[in-house]
Design a protein that fits this description.
By secondary structure, the protein is of the alpha/beta class. It has eleven helices and 19 strands. The longest helix is centred in the last third of the chain and has 17 residues, at 296-312.
């Protein structure tokens, strides 16, 4: 395979992960980074120097880069803010570039549809970097589910508690916001930090190896413990598929303790429990097997393998915008379902983050509620949260345009 000609927009924040992915691919002789956009070049002198030493043209404006390298780039990597996903992806496609887009696909279904239309119109592909979707272990779990290894699937549930402090929300101008001057961002645990895991819940609930779940009912409870942000930082999202499978995802950025994500698929004859370290298939006869998950670097390299293969073959797998749109529709449906409830001050404490010059808000008691609803596969009630306000049931398939 010839070297893929690469463009990159952004090298800071999570952009550094993409930068390192590309550097490994270049070192292996699989890629040649020919252009990059770095708007904060004074803050990234070492990376800019490295890029230039490799023959890469460094721009401070992405539009100029797209136009200057029209038709000369095979893959454009876009680890950019949510609000830039649709316009930058469409611009790259229209300038002859295939795109590797960081998750989530977009903030709204209308933007998702615009990307899908642009991909079809230009004949270029978009690979959305929900990194777990590119791992063979995840496909093995799905194969075990659809083959009936744990019996008929009854439910898929996910939980993740990741505390986030002031520094997290101050890292850019859109963190924790519903929208900015340029449009919707809907930044929240389910649409950003823990989006991977809600996406896995939706994937495991699908009826075939490639399909996402066909969800016809969603009900949400959305809460904001941190009074300094716009969007919710704690969410309970219950869903039902056309096949009658119950899906649940519960998450918070304001827990007392950290709980790394867990996703469980429960069948009539057993269950599969996934964590970031491994997954275990437990059978009804008491037998079980555990399979390790790859390292983070290997996960990233698997994404690179997939997109390089897609350059060579239109039949090679990438996680497409059509699949990624499912989660966007879920997020839009959650906002349409429920109001964002401000947690009363008596339930919230501000605490210093240990070993860091940072502080955060903690919703006292939310950890117990999260674990209980996860275990019982349900949304909270007023016995769990006195000010509980679950929303109405929404069919995400009917959301064609988001405007709350």
């Amino acid at each position: 395979m010839k070297e893929a000609r690469i463009a990159l927009v952004g090298v800071s924040g999570f952009g550094n992960v993409h930068y390192e992915d590309i550097m490994r691919a270049c070192k292996a002789g699989r890629a040649d980074i020919i252009c990059a956009t770095v708007i904060n070049q004074k803050e990234e002198p070492a990376k800019c120097a490295t890029l230039r030493s490799m023959g890469c043209t460094v721009f401070d404006d992405a539009t100029e880069m797209f136009q200057s390298f029209m038709g000369k780039v095979d893959l454009c990597f876009l680890p950019v803010g949510i609000g830039f996903h649709a316009p930058m992806t469409i611009a790259a496609l229209e300038n002859g570039m295939n795109v590797v887009l960081e998750k989530p696909l977009t903030a709204t279904v209308q933007e998702a549809d615009a990307i899908i239309d642009a991909s079809k119109r230009t004949g270029r592909f978009v690979a959305v970097a929900y990194q777990h979707m590119y791992q063979p272990q995840i496909k093995s779990i799905k194969q075990a589910i659809i083959s009936g290894e744990i019996g008929a699937l009854k439910t898929v549930r996910g939980i993740g508690l990741w505390p986030r402090g002031k520094a997290y929300y101050a890292r850019n101008n859109w963190a924790g916001k519903l929208r900015t001057e340029s449009g919707w961002v809907l930044d929240s645990p389910v649409n950003n930090a823990l989006a991977h895991y809600m996406n896995m819940v939706c994937y495991f609930g699908g009826e075939t190896l490639e399909d996402m779940a066909q969800i016809n009912s969603l009900q949400a409870g959305l809460y904001r413990a941190n009074p300094e942000i716009e969007n919710f930082d704690t969410g309970f999202i219950g869903m039902t598929t056309l096949a009658g499978v119950k899906l649940l995802f519960v998450t918070s950025h304001a827990p007392q303790s950290t709980l790394d994500p867990i996703v469980e698929a429960v069948g009539e004859k057993g269950y599969i429990r996934w964590t970031r370290a491994s997954y275990t298939i437990s059978h009804g006869d008491g037998s079980a097997e555990t399979v390790p998950m790859p390292s983070f670097e290997k996960e990233r390299d698997n994404i690179m393998d997939a997109v390089f293969n897609r350059l060579e073959s239109p039949d090679a797998f990438v996680f497409t915008p059509e699949r990624a749109r499912i989660l966007t529709a879920m997020v839009n449906a959650a906002h349409a379902s429920a109001p964002i409830v401000q947690v009363p001050r008596e339930f919230v404490v501000k605490t210093q983050i240990e070993n860091k010059d940072d502080e955060r808000y903690v919703w006292t008691g939310i950890d117990e509620v999260m674990h209980k609803t996860f275990d019982e596969i349900r949304l909270p009630t007023t016995s769990d949260i006195p000010f509980c306000d679950n929303g109405s049931r929404i069919d995400p398939r009917k959301i064609k345009f988001f405007e709350k």
